Structure formats: structure tokens, C-alpha cells
């Protein structure tokens, strides 16, 4: 197939700011997948003639995974073509496959196979987002930012996006809520110091930045983060009984997190009543076997 035929097959233009119809976009995806699997319409393009897409949804590339892919390309070559669109007669922009392009450069290739499509900005971005999401390569924040741009710039609804990427509308809505977090917390998700579950738990917190720093510092689980966020919303302190009728003992978020960590480690309920510089640590057991296990752990004996 000639380059002009490949480009002309999908060269439909549309007004700026309007999203391409769902059926047309799905048809474009199917045509590209067919070309990639059959090799029809695939050309060898000089790596130096290809530039990355500034609208690329992905912002972070794992260096270790890139090295692994580069080694695979050295041994077997680039098995799947990338997708590009022409900017001029000798210049191309990546639509999908930037990770493969980067790895091919690291592997020392001078040319790589590519499927060429004449795409406008909106369709190119839509295809880039869909390709990344389908490969499960995007970080939750990157995915959320991509969905937000598709909604704001190209007029897609959450329902239409769900059909496009084969995910539920609630999944998309939950992702978009992550963008309500402060940028510092979003950066923690981008850096994979926090998971999507952690981020979702922090969305409704009164001070998500402070809680996020605490979660990272203490290495809290998603469930622990949810409990911490609930406590913060209820006033930031959890009341603990001192056992003598005095209800003045309080435990701040750090103490609560320590209680949960000790409870998980011992398999027993742990309570800390902290007051100023001191306090009391209580460990509850139900059987003599549990008490014996606790004594062995405290004495350093094997059990």
C-alpha cells in the first residue's frame, strides 16, 4: 500500500474542539491494529525523522523497563510497529509507541517499522490515550489527566469514554476525583509512593497533603489510610480510654498508625494511651496461648 493510500484512509478532518464520533474512532483503532498485526501499510522510518508527541499522556518512563525492552529489541528486533502521523514530507510525530521508539534508540537501531496515519490533533491524542490505557501503562494521575483533557477539549462524556476504553463510568469518575488533590499529593502518585487506593482515601480529607506525607513516612496500607482520613474528618484525634474512668487520653494520627502496625505485627489488639512525654501501652489477649506467644516475642525466644 502506498503512503498516500494509508494517509488518505483516515484523513477526515473536523472542527477544533469537537471529539471524533465513537464509531469512527473505534474503526480507526481496528484499522491500525490490523495494519500492526499483518504488516500491511507498515514502513521503515529513520529514527531521526521521528519526534515524540507533546500531547503524550504518559509523563514517566521506567528506566529499568526501557533497558529491558532495549535488550529484547537488540535480540529480536522491534516486533510491533509504532504509530505516527506525518508533519511534513520527512518528519513524523509519534501517536503511540514512544516507549518502543526510545528503547529502539537505546538498542542502536537507525530505522523502525511504523504505521502512518493522517490524523488531526484530537484523534491523535485520543488514540495515544486509548493505546496507553489498553496496555495498562498509564499511572492513575496520567490516566485521569488524559480523561480530563478528552472531556474538556474534545467534548466526550464520561459514558462515551467508558465505552471507548472498556472501563466503567464509575472508574472514570473516581479517577477524575484524584485531580482534586493538591499537586504535591498527585506527584506522590506519579512517583508511585502512593497508589490509587491511597489517593482515593485522601481525596475527602481536610488536609490531604499532611496525611499523604504521614502515609508515606509510616508506610501505611490503603485500609490504614482510609481509617486515618476518617479520623481526621471527625476532628483529627481519636479518644482512647485510660481504663480508670478518665477519658482524657488521646491519640493523634501517628499514635493510631503505630497501634495498627503493632496490632498487625502481633496479631493482637494494641492500645496506646499517650499523654505528654509518657503513657501506657496495652496489649489484649484472649487465650493463654496468645499470652505465651507474646511473652516469647518480648523475651526474644523462638516459638
Automatic annotation (TrEMBL):
<feature type="domain" description="ParB-like N-terminal">
    <location>
        <begin position="43"/>
        <end position="133"/>
    </location>
</feature>
<dbReference type="InterPro" id="IPR036086">
    <property type="entry name" value="ParB/Sulfiredoxin_sf"/>
</dbReference>
<dbReference type="InterPro" id="IPR057240">
    <property type="entry name" value="ParB_dimer_C"/>
</dbReference>
<keyword id="KW-0238">DNA-binding</keyword>
<feature type="region of interest" description="Disordered">
    <location>
        <begin position="227"/>
        <end position="251"/>
    </location>
</feature>
<dbReference type="Pfam" id="PF17762">
    <property type="entry name" value="HTH_ParB"/>
</dbReference>
<keyword id="KW-0159">Chromosome partition</keyword>
<dbReference type="GO" id="GO:0005694">
    <property type="term" value="C:chromosome"/>
</dbReference>
<dbReference type="GO" id="GO:0007059">
    <property type="term" value="P:chromosome segregation"/>
</dbReference>
<dbReference type="InterPro" id="IPR050336">
    <property type="entry name" value="Chromosome_partition/occlusion"/>
</dbReference>
<dbReference type="Pfam" id="PF02195">
    <property type="entry name" value="ParB_N"/>
</dbReference>
<dbReference type="InterPro" id="IPR041468">
    <property type="entry name" value="HTH_ParB/Spo0J"/>
</dbReference>
<dbReference type="InterPro" id="IPR004437">
    <property type="entry name" value="ParB/RepB/Spo0J"/>
</dbReference>
<comment type="function">
    <text>Involved in chromosome partition. Localize to both poles of the predivisional cell following completion of DNA replication. Binds to the DNA origin of replication.</text>
</comment>
<dbReference type="GO" id="GO:0003677">
    <property type="term" value="F:DNA binding"/>
</dbReference>
<protein>
    <submittedName>
        <fullName>Chromosome partitioning protein ParB</fullName>
    </submittedName>
</protein>
<dbReference type="InterPro" id="IPR003115">
    <property type="entry name" value="ParB_N"/>
</dbReference>
<dbReference type="Pfam" id="PF23552">
    <property type="entry name" value="ParB_C"/>
</dbReference>
<comment type="similarity">
    <text>Belongs to the ParB family.</text>
</comment>
Amino acid at each position: 500500500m502506498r503512503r498516500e493510500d494509508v494517509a488518505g484512509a483516515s484523513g477526515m478532518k473536523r472542527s477544533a474542539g469537537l471529539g471524533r464520533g465513537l464509531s469512527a474512532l473505534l474503526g480507526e483503532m481496528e484499522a491500525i491494529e490490523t495494519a500492526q498485526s499483518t504488516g500491511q501499510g507498515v514502513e521503515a522510518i529513520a529514527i531521526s525523522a521521528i519526534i515524540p508527541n507533546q500531547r503524550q499522556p504518559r509523563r514517566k518512563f521506567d528506566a529499568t523497563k526501557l533497558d529491558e525492552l532495549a535488550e529484547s529489541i537488540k535480540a529480536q528486533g522491534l516486533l510491533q510497529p509504532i504509530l505516527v502521523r506525518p508533519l511534513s514530507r520527512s518528519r513524523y510525530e509519534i501517536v503511540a509507541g514512544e516507549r518502543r521508539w526510545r528503547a529502539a534508540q537505546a538498542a542502536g537501531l537507525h530505522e523502525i517499522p511504523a504505521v502512518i496515519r493522517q490524523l488531526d490533533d484530537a484523534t491523535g491524542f485520543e488514540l495515544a490515550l486509548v493505546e496507553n490505557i489498553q496496555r495498562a501503562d498509564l499511572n492513575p494521575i496520567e490516566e485521569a489527566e488524559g480523561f480530563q483533557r478528552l472531556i474538556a477539549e474534545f467534548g466526550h462524556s464520561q459514558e462515551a469514554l467508558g465505552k471507548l476504553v472498556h472501563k466503567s463510568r464509575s472508574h472514570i469518575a473516581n479517577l477524575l476525583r484524584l485531580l482534586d488533590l493538591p499537586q504535591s499529593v498527585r506527584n506522590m502518585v506519579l512517583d508511585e509512593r502512593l497508589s490509587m487506593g491511597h489517593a482515593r482515601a485522601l481525596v475527602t480529607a481536610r488536609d490531604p497533603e499532611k496525611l499523604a506525607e504521614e502515609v508515606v513516612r509510616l508506610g501505611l496500607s490503603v485500609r490504614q489510610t482510609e481509617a486515618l482520613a476518617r479520623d481526621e474528618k471527625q476532628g483529627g484525634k481519636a479518644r482512647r480510654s485510660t481504663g480508670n474512668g478518665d477519658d482524657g487520653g488521646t491519640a493523634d494520627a501517628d499514635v493510631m498508625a503505630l497501634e495498627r502496625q503493632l496490632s498487625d505485627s502481633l496479631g493482637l489488639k494494641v492500645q496506646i494511651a499517650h499523654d505528654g512525654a509518657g503513657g501506657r501501652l496495652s496489649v489484649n489477649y484472649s487465650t493463654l496461648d496468645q499470652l505465651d506467644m507474646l511473652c516469647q516475642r518480648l523475651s526474644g525466644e523462638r516459638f
